[in-house]
Amino acid sequence: MQQENAFTTALNLILSGDAVLGEIVVLSLAVTLTALLVSAIIGLPLGAALALARFPGRSFLVVTFNALMGLPPVVAGLAVYLMLSRSGPLGWLGILFSPSAMIVAQTLLITPIIVSLTRQVVEDLWGEYEEQLRSLGSSRLQAIPTLLWDGRFSLITAILAGFGRASAEVGAILIVGGNIAGYTRTMTTAIALETSRGDLALALGLGIILLGITLSLNAAAYVTGRLAQKAAG
Amino acid sequence: MSFMRSVLVAGAIALSSLPGLASAQDFITVASTTSTEQSGLFGHILPIFKEKTGIEVRVIAQGTGQALETGRRGDADVVFVHAKAAEEEFVKEGFGVERKEVMYNDFVIVGPGEDPAGIKGGNDAVAALKKISEAGATFTSRGDDSGTHKAELALWKQAGVKPSGDWYRELGTGMGPTLNTSAQMPAYTLTDRATWLSFENKGPLEIVVEGDPKLFNQYGVILVNPAKHPHVKAEQGQAFIDWLVSPEGQKAIADYKINGQQLFFPNASAS
């Protein structure tokens, strides 16, 4: 019964152009996409450097980033909470319980995913093109931009994996954002709230909308990738 | 060191200037309980307060224990909770300025309609808990140091029962999730009436015990002490507290109803 209602609820919410829902969707996307952008800016070069550079402790870093892909969101949230709390080292920033804090937490969660997947992609490409690049006089680190560009289609998957983790996540942003109505309430925290209130149809309806958005974004990325691949020949 | 600091400042500025995420300056953060937020009370009274003062109130709904901890850490300007002893402790430790009583409602014991412990229709909470433990009927506890959890433990103490065993389930979660779980088990549990009335997944649960003076549930509001945490927005926070206990605020609380039933009863002492 609840399940059937969920589809009707989802449809009604979308069709009625619910303003609160609109705000929640926009905030969710703004937080997740900003975190994704920051993570990509950090993670892509870092992953490539980790693939190519040779230094003591490299294996340790590789394993650490791989392990951090499994960082429990609630632990990441707690760590960011303790850092940003007024009683914590970064309390003077005054950004706890704000979208900024949620961006920090999600960045912490998805950067390891982008670093690790990028490292794998670039490592494989280096294995393939090492001789060619060396004959062109390129050193390992000089090859980073070339290899990142060459692996761009595979790297889209790394970015999408990051997006998936961030947009589905609730444990961390609930702790650092506080789920404040109209300010830090996102799709996932709203779903958690409606479940708590026992309004399971509304919770599931919101879930269906979130899945729809995720599906659309992934489809867009897929189509763009295919078109670009064709254009690149 | 100073480099790190400037990087962090730059980062913070970048973060706070994100389009669409910029925050209004005139706001306060209130750490409150799930019962006040999830019952819809804040949704009803906060727009009235904002209309009058222009101050936006951002509510973080937590259990009472956690809300007081948020206040202790300086992460909220005002705490609005329901556990008198813990609130007085909070003020005594110097984290709060002054505790003011705002409103009350009551706790009720809910349970499956089949009523395996045979307590339906009673109005003696302590006797009912005794019967539940004797019958070994499943009882779920919040187990999360919330106001409701503290009230439940006090009742067990008066019943002279140390709750433990297969029939006593500590869930460690909020009121809503506890009711969701209790409806499925099914189990008896203690809930505040506001959350119960606004809860939409009752299943086989119904009120079995109510009306015991021991089930009285008082809410209090406290300004976090600016002497401990200088960034606390004392002026706006105090304005919110003054409004809550004013005739206008008290009327706004009394006016909030679900299906014609009043959820909270204002009882601020005239000052």
Give the averaged pLDDT of chain A, no decimals: 92
User: Can you tell me the overall shape of chain B?
Assistant: globular
Please identify the top-level CATH class of chain A: Mainly Alpha
CATH architecture of the largest domain in chain B: 3-Layer(aba) Sandwich
What is the overall number of helices of chain B? 11
Query: The CATH topology of the largest domain in chain B, please?
Result: D-Maltodextrin-Binding Protein, domain 2
Outline the biggest β-sheet of chain A. Answer: none
Keywords (chain A): Membrane, Transmembrane, Transmembrane helix
Domain ABC transmembrane type-1 (chain A): 25-221
Transmembrane segments (chain A): 24-53, 60-84, 90-110, 155-180, 200-223
GO biological process, one term (chain A): transmembrane transport
Structure characterization notes:
The complex is a heterodimer of chains A (233) and B (271). Chain A contains 10 helices and no strands. Chain A is an all-alpha fold and 233 residues long. Chain A has a single domain (2-231), classed as MetI-like (MetI-like fold), CATH 1.10.3720.10. Chain A has helices at 2-15, 19-52, 58-68, 73-84, 99-135, 144-150, 152-168, 171-177, 187-196, 200-231. The mean pLDDT of chain A is 92. Chain B is of the alpha/beta class and 271 residues long. Chain B folds into 2 domains: 25-104 and 218-266, 3-Layer(aba) Sandwich (D-Maltodextrin-Binding Protein, domain 2), CATH 3.40.190.10; 106-215, D-Maltodextrin-Binding Protein, domain 2 (3-Layer(aba) Sandwich), CATH 3.40.190. Chain B is 41% helix and 24% strand. Chain B contains 11 helices and 12 strands. Chain B has helices at 2-16, 34-38, 41-53, 64-72, 84-92, 125-135, 147-159, 175-184, 193-198, 234-245, 247-255; strands spanning 27-33, 56-62, 78-81, 96-112, 139-141, 168-170, 188-192, 205-209, 216-224, 257-258, 261-262, 265-266. In chain B, strands 1, 2, 3, 4, 5, 6, 7, 8, 9 and 12 form a 10-stranded mixed β-sheet that branches. Chain B has a two-stranded antiparallel sheet with strand order 10-11. In chain B, helix 6 crosses helix 7 (147-159) and helix 10 crosses helix 11. Chain B starts with a helix and ends in a 5-residue tail after the last strand. The A-B interface holds A 26-27, 30, 34, 85-88, 90-91, 93-100, 103-104, 178-181, 183, 193, 195-200 and B 8, 12, 15-16, 18, 20-21, 23, 29, 34, 37-38, 42-43, 58-61, 73-75, 174-177, 179-180, 183, 198-202, 229, 231.
